[in-house]
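Running this now, will post back.
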Amino acid sequence: MSFKTIEPQEVNRLMKDENQLNIIDVRENDEVAQGMIPGAKHIPLGEVPYRLNEFDPTKEYIMVCRSGKRSEKACGVLAANNFKVVNMTGGMLNWDGEVK
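Update: finished.
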């Protein structure tokens, strides 16, 4: 199962260029309470397989977690269901952009 990866700095640059990004944060509730990328949607990893109806097969999604491991798992689930996904490597640990 292959999918693309993107560096956090690249995501931040794309956001600054006002690209319409579909960012999904798969961390747990207590983690996102500490701050999320502005505009990101929160779907905890364990819920992803049950919420496939919330994804649009015509869009590409950037998956985010704390370090990049859980988002990689989420990418695997979504890619297996024919969704276009990109894993943000390094996760929020490497994110130096704005958080809300």
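The chain has one domain: 4-94. More later if anyone needs it.
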